[in-house]
Each structure stands twice: as C-alpha cells, then as structure tokens.
Amino acid sequence: MAALKISVVICTYNGEKYIVEQLESIAGQTRLPDQLILSDDGSRDNTVAILKEFARTASFHVIVHQQPANLGSTLNFADAIARASEDIIVLSDQDDVWYPHKLEALEHVFDTKHDVGIVFSDADIVDQHLDPLGYTLWQSLRFSPKQQDEMRRGSPLSVMLKHSVVTGATMAFRSRLRSLIYPIPNSWVHDEWIALVLSMFAPIYPLPTALIRYRQHGANQISAEAINWRSRLQVALD
Question: CA angle at residue 101 from 20 to 92, to 5 degrees?
Fold first, then answer.
C-alpha cells in the first residue's frame, strides 16, 4: 500500500501577530506535510507577505491563495479544503502552535485504522504567550472518557448531538470523503458541519493526546471556555 500523503489547510485573516509561530511549528514537524494550503481572506496587515516569504523558503510544497473578496471563515475554509490534493486533509488555525509529533501521530492512526474517516485530538489550552492555563480542550468541552469510548465503539452521533467535541484546529479527515461535505452552509462553522456530516459515513477516532497548544488571546472566533452547539451556532448566525 502506498504511503499516505498529507495536505495541511490554514485560513488566515489579519494573522500577522501569531502566524509565524504556527508556520514554524509546521516546518518543525517530525513528519513534514506534503502540501500546505494557505488561504488568506483579505488581510489588511502583513499576513500575506509573511505567507509568501514562508512559501519561498519552505522545504515542502506551499500554495498561497488570496481570496478576491472577504468570504468569512466558513467559506474560506470550504474553498481552501477544495484546493487540497493529498490523501489526508489536516485543518489548522492561524494562531496555535503544533507539537512536533502532530502529523506523525495523525498519520499513524489513519495508516493503522483504515475504516476511520476523521481523527481529532486533545489540545493544551494556553494564553497569548503560550503559557499553559492548566486545563485541556477536552476538559473545557466536558468530553469525558466514557464519551470518548462511546465514539471509538462507533457511536459518534450519540455524543455529538449532545454537545460539540470536534474542534477544527485538531481535526483531520480523508480527502476521499470531501465531496460529502459540500456545500458547507455559511450559517454553520465549518468544523461543526464537517464533523457532523462525515460522522454519518465513517468512524471518528478521538486521539487522547494533546497535539497542539490552543491559544486563547481574547480575539478568538470561539473560545475554549464556551465551545458547544449553542455558542457555535450563535457565532455562525451573527
């Protein structure tokens, strides 16, 4: 069987403050991506210049795309995901930092669990300076060990319909399932839609390891203290 190839997708918007650290953490992976899609949604700061400079020096294939008009997070991600060409699509926020073994850990799950369609991990919650806040993303979501086991046994909807537990910054999925998610309604947050739709067609595997530092800086679209169906839908509708 041929080795899996990985596309990483990052959508940016006025991200100059933190994007360098995120890009450096991707370039420092023990298993580098085969492709990195960087889709900017009309930034008015130096984000695009940073992305282009990174693309110029990266040791792997980087595509920088500039949206002709501001689409918003959901539609920008929808467009960027469509541009990914490899077997596994890994989503990323612009302001987090990955641990070096993130892609290696995700690849291992997909490579050994051939029926799994989505993998998502835990994350360490940190402040704007990357200092730990003393809890993890799954703790903030109240994603209990019992619910994790329930998902692994093949009942993701029974958990997800109670509350949201799959966060885009920790999510990866097989690109062969991608056509199932389109069109992504602009009234939804992209990660909620992807997780809910794909859970109807393929198993979801929660990986009980923190693979990123999930930065909270006061300007997050959705904070780690209030990630649930109600708050996600409210953000989508605002």
Answer: 45
